[in-house]
Specification:
4-stranded mixed beta sheet
Length: 80
């Protein structure tokens, strides 16, 4: 995994009012948080734990870069 950037996608769940994160690069990664900042903190812990649990990294890898792409759909109204 050395020098590889992990790609994580976060989608806003309007009904639950949380950001939901998933990644094809990290098997088993599914988590949610109310803010992107909270989500990032969770990902900083979960990504290395899941990669190690899946045998994709070893314990001497201390930094794992990740790219978080967030998507949120809203409505703009004329005259508001």
């Amino acid at each position: 995994m050395k020098n590889k950037i992990i790609h994580v996608k976060a989608i806003w769940d309007k009904e639950a009012k949380v950001w939901v994160a998933i990644s094809e690069d990290v098997p088993g990664l599914v988590t949610e948080a109310e803010t992107l900042e909270q989500l990032i903190k969770k990902l900083q812990v979960m990504i290395p734990e899941l990669l190690e649990a899946n045998g994709l990294i070893n314990s001497n890898e201390t930094e794992i870069p990740f790219h978080l792409l967030s998507e949120r759909t809203e409505i703009a109204k004329l005259g508001v």
